[in-house]
Amino acid sequence: MCGIIGCILYNKKAAPVLLNCVKKLEYRGYDSVGIATSSSIIKIKKDSGKIDDVHENLNLDDLPGDMGIAHVRWATHGLPTKENSHPHTDCKNKIAVVHNGIIENYKEIRDQLIKEGHQFKSETDTEVIPHLIEKYMDMGNDLESATRLAIGNIEGSYAIAAISRDEPNKVVGARKESPLIVGKGNREYFIASDAPAILEHTNKIIYLEDHEMVILSDEGIEIKDSDGNVIKKEIFTIDWTPDMAKKGGYDHFMLKEIHEQPEAVKNTLKEINEIKKIVQKFKKFNRICFVACGTSYHASLIGKYLFEGLIAIPTDVILASEFGYSAEALDENTLVIAITQSGETADTLKALKLVNHKAKTLAIVNVVGSTATREADYVIYIRPGPEIGVAATKTYVSQLVAIYLLAICMSGKEELLEKLQNIPDYMRNALEKEDLIKEIAMKYKDAKDFFFIGRGFSYPTAMEGALKLKEITYIHAEGYAAGELKHGPLALIDDDVPVVAVAPPGKSHEKTLSNVEEVKARGAHVIGLGSSEDEVLKSEAHDMIEFEDKIDEMFSSIHYVIPLQLLSYYISVMKGIDPDHPKNLAKCVTVE
Ligand code: F6R
């Protein structure tokens, strides 16, 4: 959802550093890129397209000055064109601004500014900001005060960085409902949409709250509240290393992150003591309510089966974007669990806000210090390291493990922890099927529609398999409860539609096999996921991905998803798509 960077460096050109940082944010948007630096004048290079392509044409790192701002765009207002790329400027090109978020009242502001004589060059909502700053600077305000007055006019969400030719040693940043962090290096100061972008320069991070502003200058960092009072903020030391945000020999971040999953799960398992401490603080809840989006929603669905199965607590799973529309019966006996890897998803944050202390809230999060961690009463960190690929993989399995640990601790059935210890080995076995999965990908890559089916714990796995396929291969896919097919979608099944059947051993196994027979009878090609001892599935499926472990379906969701991630990854690559940057999507969705 757009990424922004700002920096003031010491005796160093800013443009190459900005370029390097903004590349780390490309997962947030890749419709266009732009950099502005300031010395005696503001110089800007920007265009639509991915960073490497734009850089090849424009030499983005060839700009003077030791301070500046940069942006990658995920278009909301206006097509991805050069004109709509950030940074945006005022009428006199003396102010430049980058923005992440949505300005809801930009039309009224724009109309008013046009009446006052301002000239606009883009179709974006963002462009009103430099013009507002210009207006207030023309009235005699400095950049900081003019920015404060400008954002006072804005309804909606924003993280911004602004520079002005008149104050060439200053970057002003502000946030409301879009993430913005501040980095403190050695006489070098940064603002950024997230920490991995600046890790090569510093791991000392300050998290801004809504309505706070930051002023970077040669003298350091100053953070102010909405009234302009200087405030002191805690500096966090991030334990992620710069290497974690590199591809490490893999063709794509997604493939690297798929392979990191056994390690990711091991790291999450180490959180057990932290989770026990949190559970000790819990009172007795009589209802659990998960809120999440996308892949995190699928992890939450597994949570429903677990909490109802292990603790018999009624558990709802609500899409965060729908949370505000259902009459939520929340009270102090309800625990609302928000699952969000980024901790910055606008829908999930909105849901947390809507709870408004009516119930206790717990956030299960990857990004340390992200907004969700500050909104919730309790926080569990999942610790798989930074995830750069747009499609969630390792954070999904880590979310699952955190949910398993939580359910086990809350149920007191600690003997089940042993089952989780073997999961990293099962995951490694699943990763060894990569060549077979490549062959299956080759066979089905031209299909126009896919179905993924499963029952019980395997139903969310089927949904997650379908979501991965949709987002990185652009093939239409449905994740369906296997038993529900006959109530409608069976009409769509024919010999052109591959059906992936997730059928581990356990309670749901036999019925899933009946559903496999039903789709086969309509001509479907079946790709089966099941035990290596499952002779029936092996004989029914056209292609079979076998798991040597005999673990029950209750614990299968973590490693059974791996072949589905790999299948999508290889189909994506075979179709010439960049799986790290699927079209129209962004890693962190900071708009509602
Ligand atoms: C899919 C994917 C998205 C996210 C969703 C929620 O691969 O990554 O569906 O799961 O946008 O994001 P978080 O977990 O950051 O709240």
Overview of this structure, please?
This protein has 592 residues and is an alpha/beta fold. It has three domains: 3-240, Glutamine Phosphoribosylpyrophosphate, subunit 1, domain 1 (4-Layer Sandwich); 247-421, Rossmann fold, CATH 3.40.50.10490; 428-581, Glucose-6-phosphate isomerase like protein, domain 1 (Rossmann fold, 3-Layer(aba) Sandwich), CATH 3.40.50.10490. 34% of the residues lie in helices and 22% in strands. The protein has 19 helices and 24 strands. The strands form four sheets. Strands 3-2-4-1-10-9-11-14 form an eight-stranded antiparallel β-sheet, with helices on one face. The protein has a six-stranded antiparallel β-sheet with strand order 5-6-7-8-12-13, with helices on one face. A five-stranded parallel β-sheet has the order 16-15-17-18-19, with helices on both faces. Helix 4 (128-138) crosses helix 5 (143-152), helix 7 runs parallel beside helix 12 (394-411) and helix 9 (294-310) runs antiparallel to helix 16. The radius of gyration is 25 Å and the shape is globular. The relative contact order is 0.09. The mean pLDDT is 94. The site of fructose -6-phosphate has 14 residues, from helix 9 and helix 16.
**Strand arrangement, largest sheet?**
3-2-4-1-10-9-11-14
Q: List each distinct ligand once.
A: fructose -6-phosphate
The CATH architecture name of the largest domain reads: 4-Layer Sandwich
The CATH homologous superfamily of the largest domain is termed: Aminohydrolase, N-terminal nucleophile (Ntn) domain
Percent range of helical residues: 25-40%
Mean pLDDT: 94
CATH C-level label of the largest domain: Alpha Beta
CATH topology of the largest domain: Glutamine Phosphoribosylpyrophosphate, subunit 1, domain 1
- Uncertain regions: pLDDT < 50 for 5+ in a row? none
Give the helix tally. 19
Number of DSSP strands? 24
Overall 3D form:
globular
Number of domains: 3
Instruction: State the distance separating the first and last CA atoms.
Output: 11 Å
Tell me about the largest β-sheet: 8 strands, antiparallel
